Amino acid sequence: xxxxxxxxxxxxxxxxxxxxxxxxxxxxxxxxxxxxxxxxxxxxxxxxxxxxxxxxxxxxxxxxxxxxxxxxxxxxxxxxxxxxxxxxxxxxxxxxxxxxxxxxxxxxxxxxxxxxxxxxxxxxxxxxxxxxxxxxxxxxxxxxxxxxxxxxxxxxxxxxxxxxxxxxxxxxxxxxxxxxxxxxxxxxxxxxxxxxxxxxxxxxxxxxxxxxxxxxxxxxxxxxxxxxxxxxxxxxxxxxxxxxxxxxxxxxxxxxxxxxxxxxxxxxxxxxxxxxxxxxxxxxxxxxxxxxxxxxxxxxxxxxxxxxxxxxxxxxxxxxxxxxxxxxxxxxxxxxxxxxxxxxxxxxxxxxxxxxxxxxxxxxxxxxxxxxxxxxxxxxxxxxxxxxxxxxxxxxxxxx
Amino acid sequence: xxxxxxxxxxxxxxxxxxxxxxxxxxxxxxxxxxxxxxxxxxxxxxxxxxxxxxxxxxxxxxxxxxxxxxxxxxxxxxxxxxxxxxxxxxxxxxxxxxxxxxxxxxxxxxxxxxxxxxxxxxxxxxxxxxxxxxxxxxxxxxxxxxxxxxxxxxxxxxxxxxxxxxxxxxxxxxxxxxxxxxxxxxxxxxxxxxxxxxxxxxxxxxxxxxxxxxxxxxxxxxxxxxxxxxxxxxxxxxxxxxxxxxxxxxxxxxxxxxxxxxxxxxxxxxxxxxxxxxxxxxxxxxxxxxxxxxxxxxxxxxxxxxxxxxxxxxxxxxxxxxxxxxxxxxxxxxxxxxxxxxxxxxxxxxxxxxxxxxxxxxxxxxxxxxxxxxxxxxxxxxxxxxxxxxxxxxxxxxxx
Lengths: 400, 400
Description:
8-stranded mixed sheet; homodimer; EC 2.7.2.4 (chains A, B); 18 strands; ATP binding (chains A, B); alpha/beta
């Protein structure tokens, strides 16, 4: 069996943790498996390198930043190879250039184009554990690139696909995917299985332990992921195309308080006004999420929508600067909102589920301000102070 | 003009020093020159990485150690590129893989085989300052290698040769090559010029600011080196094939207290005894330096020789273990000795110089225990406590 195992920065944060990961990988190796390990940079190393760079240049070029950051994973993998060697198991570390992890040239946010597997296969045939730098790649001109947030997960999935691995294990500081954040919903339970699509919705809503891009890549190549803890031997959660159980059920509840609401009030009821508003925001690269259009007073319209909290000020300023005053009466903005979602492939054919959610929130005295849905998700905007209460009410309603 | 400038770890040890080096290189660039900069790892970074490795594995593989250490220079070069960029000058950092610095596979002590200059020339044509990692290379299987002690100097010289550079400047913490160590000989003077061969003898004797391999490479390719300070704008010392002035003179006096003396006393006067002694030492990789054979008492011989201090114990133990007791009467060992040398191409045709040195030491009441010579060097072994006195006496004698 060929297994790809990915460990994050916390799991390799110091000597003891490195030895712990080494032992864990060696257990698998001694069962006769081929083991490929993907590592992130140690602990806070990436943050420290960024700080060092900004001290010298507050606005460093992305090309040079990637050149600097790739030293982080290279440090992790070489130390890990030494750790395994000290435990008597042959290991070799490879960085993006040695693996030939080819990416696009978009520094700090590159995409993997192609992986040459010759070197890795060759080392595996010599019965070595192969330790690969996550997060990094090289472009066609031999420049280093990095893959952006969650990049090491993406590296692991891409390697698993290229090597036709039998398993891709993502080790993290939680022991799987839960029906809700256990810090907010005490009744939250670990899921044994979840579909790629459900996982994607969870990730988008800030509740996922995996980054979207890695899940998309896993879905595209049919790589079954296992999310599990590097600290325990618990089974973890399998992320795959379809799951057998709980067909009519909800897989999880997510809460996201990184949301802000903007309402443009008293808009003239002429065609194209919505386009004008969202065009202004698009030009400023502001991502708009939930949108609600309603009839206001005096036959005028109100348009409300949500943005991420950190984009609120830019969005409001853009609207005030570029939207003629005569187009609207008032702009209202608030950060005191949060999104609560239920996710599950069971939603697809069961329209009654959304109604049950709204009813549960009503009974819990939670006011719903906006609603948006996808095929496998229902999201409501609530007051921020009601978020946890709403999550628990929904979680209880669907007996997760 | 194309200039290669090499700066050591101290010169890039913190933000201010990095900015200082950046400014210095930019001055040259603004004169219209093509500038290639070679950097070592920052300050103590290499030592810190080695300590980190040894914590995990007291005896790490050299392949993985090189993989780890190469992150040091990569950190320096990317930060330097950011520094130059912040000063408004386009710069690009390149590591050994990006330059295509091909070396042998001897980890921790590789030799440069070939440098592809395409990438560097291409970047220079775009009027960028090119910043290259010193000390490191890649072998034919894409593994990282390092060049051993003084490796960054070697990188700079090899690049200067490959690029047909007009100058190769080695910046260091002293402002040139001196006639003697100024900490020991207060009358020591900076040399304007010195030949490769003289520099090699100085380096071998521990007095050189350049490592032997870089000087050998410069000699082989006829690269004129300039040794100068990164802290001042002093002219420095030029190292080249031949120098015009001081043809009959001595270029320098060197003292080396990293020497130990072993005397094997009372050896049977049968053929092959010297071979047996040095064969035992060769098998233990002990380097023998000065050798003196003398007639002892009772028609027996004494053989004395010097080794480096750290090899003394190994050498004595090897002799005791492998040399039959009947071959000799006694082995004496002492670390209380030092070598004092005069170096100069003037020695080549002027035999009287050695006699003048011996006379000067005699007048200074320094006892000479052994003598060895090369074409451009005379070395004497003295008691360690006499080393500085002997250096000063020789320095004064030749009016340096």
